[in-house]
Design goal:
Length: 374
Amino acid sequence: MPQLIFGLIYLLILTRFLWPMDLPLWVKIPAAALILVALQFHRWSKLSSGSVFSPEFPRPIVALFNWAFGGIILLALLQLALDVGLLLAIPFNGGVVSAPDEVRYGLAALAAVAAAIGVQQAMRIPPLKDIEIGIHGLPPQFDGYTILQLTDLHISRLFPASWALAVVERSNKLGADLIAITGDLIDGTLDARRTDIEPLRYLKATDGVYVISGNHEYIFGYDTWMAHFAALGLLSLENRHIVLDRNGGKLVIAGITDQATRHRGHHVRDLAAVLEGAPKSAPVILLDHQPSDARHAAKLGVALQLSGHTHGGLIWGVDRLAAPANAGFVSGRYDVGGMTLYVNNGTALWPGFALRLGRPSELTRITLRQAGAG
């Protein structure tokens, strides 16, 4: 299916953008070849590592591929919009309307600049995003409690050890009470990523650093990676809960395996079993990589669910394409049957399409408040 989509994009660019332009054949043919090479980015990634999810080229090459690939996708969208506009203009013009070459040059320049900005926004160390979430029944001892959510780090050639170390340093300076990493920490095998992920060993929070799996952990060896996370001092919340106690006030933090487990023959996703034995009066905060099961969590009495996975939809406007696959939840805060769902845009994102426009990455510090207080 992806190859079919990329093939259609290539035909659109070739027939509606490149070929109608007043350029010599010796320019058009190499340009068509370069566009084809860029659109095959994921094929080259698979040749480099055996997986489309782990391009093992030097970081500048991965960034360049993302710029070229992203620019072509944006150009296709712009060309499609232009063609729709030309079709709508036919009744008013009394015949077929064509666009001059200058318009196409303008579209190409806009796509190239937007893609460059998008890749830069994707690769940066994410800024702090502060939010407050009110929770009914939150013990006063936990009013003001802070959770730093990291998610979708996708540590890889594009997000290597130097990037991870900068994220760790910025995170530690925030002094959060607890750090929650909600899946997709890596892209690559343990042998490929051992050095790049090492900085996560230095993450610190008063009540610990907790981690759950995302779907990408299953791609690259779930058992191997979960064992390595534990060796780095990251505390697994896979299918279990903990109870935090502050002077008699209690707060439950629970975690569940990713939905990929349903297709991989690993643990059964059973949230009711995960919450069994938790204090009935204590609010529950759930870590679940994907947001699409949020309504089920709400029915089981979860007060707050923290998720990622969607990367915020990557591009404002186009982000709605991600909604159907995620039960309508793409970016930000949602009220789901009285439960608050927060879908994080992600600390980083998959290096196979590293582009952000209007959906920025974030280090998310969540401050818990008693609902209705003050």
